[in-house]
Hints:
Low-confidence stretches: 331-336, 373-413
Radius of gyration: 32 Å
Oligomer: single chain
Distance between the termini: 72 Å
Largest sheet: 8 strands, mixed
Number of domains: 3
Number of helices: 15
CATH topology of the largest domain: formyl-coa transferase, domain 3
Mean pLDDT: 81
CATH class of the largest domain: Alpha Beta
Strand content: 15-25%
Shape: globular
Amino acid sequence: MGDIITLLPDHVANQIAAGEVVQRPASVVKELLENAIDADSSYVQLIIKEGGKTLIQVIDDGKGMSITDARMAFERHATSKIKSASDLFELHTKGFRGEALASIAAVAHVEMFTHSLEDEIATQIKIIGSDIQEQEPVVAPKGTSIAVKNLFFNIPARRNFLKSNAVELRHIIDEFHRVALAHPQIAFTFFQGGNELFDLPATNLRKRISHIFGSKMDVKLVPVKESTSVSSVSGFVLKPAAAKRTRGHQFFFVNDRFIRSPFMHHAIMNAYEGLLPEGTVPGYFIFFSLDPKTIDINIHPTKTEVKFEDEQSLYAILRSCVKHSLGMFSVAPTLDFDRDPNLDTPYNQINKQAETPNLEVDSNFNPFKNPDVQRFSKPKEASWESLYVEVESQPIPTLLGHESMEHKTYDAVKLFQLMNRYIVSSIGSGLLIIDQQRAHERILYEQFLKTITQKQIASQQLLFPYPLDLTPTQQLLLSDLEDVLSEAGFVFERNTKTNITIKGIPVSSSEKEIPHIFENLFASLESDLPSDSFSQSDVLSKSLAKTLSIKRGVPMKPIEQQGLLDDLFACKETQISPFNRQIFVILTKEELEKKFN
C-alpha cells in the first residue's frame, strides 16, 4: 500500500479554516472591526451591500501597515498580536487569530488599501481566493480600508446556506452593536446600500447606549459599579419596569470583549428576584475588568465564551452590586408631576380625628313583609326544585381525531374554569381539559391568517394617533413587513427614520396593546425574516395571536368559556396551537378509575 497522507495545498487549508472563522457575513464584519480597533483608530466606517454578500468594507484612521506587513497579513498563522503560546493568557487585543484574514481572502475577493504613519505612500493589494493578483504603491489616506466582495464566490454550497439579505444584515447589526458598545470612545458610522443606519459620535457609555437603542433608553438605565481585588464591574442594568418577555438587551463584556455567559446571566436574574413580572427578562450592559491571566477565551472558535478562574466569586460580586443598585433605585425619592393636589388632605385637617357619622335606622323595617318585594321572598317549599332545573343539553362540536366523541352531549353546568387556566367540560368518554391561552392563540391565528391572505382588511381608526420610536433594526423589519401589516389592518405613517405614527389597528386589538404587539413582532423576526409573502403573513398572524390571546390566570365568565369552546372547534386545526403545543387533553373514565384503585 502506497503513501496516502499528503499536505493540503494552502488554498485548500485556508478554505477549511474559513469554515471556522467565516460562518456568515457577520463573522467577517467582526474580524475587520476588531482589527480596526486594535489599530488604535478613532473613527471606523462600515459599509454593507446586500446583507454583506456583495460587499463588506471597513475603513479606519488607525496606524496602517507597511508594505511587508500588508502582504504578510494574509498569510496563515500571521499576526502581530502574539509571539508565543504564553501570550494567549496576556491578551489585551481582539483580533489575535492568525488565520482570520487568510481565511477571508480564501473565500472572497479582497481589496486592501493601507497607509502607515511612517510611510510616505500607501499600499494596494488585490486577492481572489487566496491568490494575490497585484500589489502596488498608491495614494491613500492614513489608515486602512479593506473591502471584501462576493463572499463564498468559490464555495456555492456555503453561499446557498446564507439567509436572506435582511436576516444577514441583522446579524451584522448585532456584531456592530457589540463592538460599538465596547468602545464608546471611538466614533462609528454604518451604511447599508447607501443609507446611513448609524452615526455614533465618540462619547461615554450611557450616551452610546442611547444613540444605539433610542433616546428613551436613557431614563431606564440604572448604573452599576463595584471594584474588588478579584475584578471591577461597571455598566448599567435596566429598571424592572423595562423588562421584556424576549431577550434583546443583554450584553456582557470581559476586558471590552463581548461574551455569552449563562452563569452570569443567572446572577443578574437572581438579583432581580421578586422585582420582575413573570416570564420577563431584564436588560443589562455589564463590563468586567479582569486580569487576562484569570480567564481563558480560547474555549470556543468565535471567542464569545470564556472560562473564569474564580467564577463563583464573580457571580457573588455581580449579584451583590446589581442588587445594591436596584435597591438604591427603589428607595430614591421621585417627583410625581401627575399627582392631583386637589386630592391631598387640607393642612388644617391633617391632625383632626375622624368623626363617627350619625345614621338614622328604622328598626321596624322588614323587607319580607312587603308583598311587592317578590325577589326577596322565601321560595315556596313546593317550588324549591325549580332552582335545580336541568339545563337543556346541547351537542358538543366534533373533535378532530376523536371519532368516539362524535354526537356526544354535555351540560352547560358541566363547563367550568380550573385554576383560571383550563376550561373543563364533561363528555361521554371522560373529561375534556382545554388550555385557554393555547386555544385562543389557535382561534386568533386562523382569523388573522384568513384576514391577511384574503385581504379582508378590518381596521379601526385611533382617536389619538400613537407615536412609536424604532431602532435601526426595527426600521428594517418594518420596511420588509409594511405591506403585510397593512393587510392585517395596521395604518401608520413615517415621520422620521426613527419614528412612526400609528393611526389604525386591527379591530380585535386595543390601543394599550400596541407596544406589546410590535415588541413581540420584532422579537419573532429576530431569528429569521421570511422572504415570501405567505411566510410573512404566517409570522405576523402568530405574533398577533400570541400578543392578543387570553392569558393564563385570567378568569372567564361561563358565556366566554362557551364561546371559546365553540370557536376552537370551528377551527381547521383544533389539537395543536400555532406554536406546536397541545391545546387539550382527554382524561378518560378508565384513567379516572385508575386514580381511585
